[in-house]
Amino acid sequence: MATSALTHTRGVYPGDLFDELIVQHMLKGRGGIESFREMYARHPLANAWWNDKRPDMKRINVPTYITGTWTNTMRGMGAIRGWLEGDDNGWEKTPKVRMSLLRFGQKIPQAIENIVEEDFPPARTQYKEFFLSTEETLIPDAAPEETATISYDSNSSGNVSFTHTFTETTRIIGLPKAVLYMSCSDHDDMDVYVVIQKLDSDGQQMKNLNIPWKGIPVNSVEEFAPEQETEVVLYKGPVAILRATHRAIDETRSIHPHWPFHPHEKEEKIPPGEVVRLDIGIWVLGVEYEAGESLRVVVSGQSFAAQRIREFPSSNPGMSTRSFPA
């Protein structure tokens, strides 16, 4: 079969990066463009306009070429790049799944590439449950005997975190999910952000450079200024976001038990102080952890990456002045 070109779909970045940078300075033409920010202001719940942008992947029944990304939420976890048609050229012998594992830091190689699998997530995946503890650790397999409460200030950058240290090389591939029981004493809704970070053997957060080191004018992650650490360049780990009043799930449309489908068709307000269960699908990941390195789950009420356009400081030697999201 021959590969035929096809326009691809991708995730939508409904923040300043899209409205203020891409729309104003990159997209050309006179036909105008839909504003996701304005549509959300007018129609915050699902309707025909929003649902038209959520394709039902289960209905695709032809061979397709799909690419995905671990690192960039602008691109989407899967983007259709083409379909197959035409003359026989052996394309059907191409492995069904090819992927890479990120290693973070300044390791050589930066990633383990071209890993071949029969399916995704890999069929041999060993699913494990970890439970949150008040000692800020992740407890494997069995929940603590006593329940407890831990809190953070959602009006600031407050958060809570839980860590697990690996004793042997471990590869985590697929779709993680957080199940949280949460309440808020002052409001009837909550925005909940979850991120999975990687820590080195000294407990310091690691980051993954998304381009070859030779392609940038710095030699280490430490040389980046905070405003330069955009997700386009540096990956800090998979993120999840859920507004608690949109917690309803349509199991018939969920593509995986760890990726619940939220219809966003109604708001279910939460009486202040009432505890509710939140099933939060986390962005897909593929990361290798070496012995002594750790996984840290962070829960917060604030975005981990402010979606604003900032200027790279022109005083930084070797870095051009360009607009990027912080």
Automatic annotation (TrEMBL):
Coiled coil: none annotated. Residues 83-320 form the Xaa-Pro dipeptidyl-peptidase C-terminal domain. Pfam families: PepX_C. Gene3D superfamilies: alpha/beta hydrolase, Galactose-binding domain-like. One of its GO terms (molecular function) is dipeptidyl-peptidase activity. This is X-Pro dipeptidyl-peptidase C-terminal non-catalytic domain-containing protein. It comes from Colletotrichum salicis.
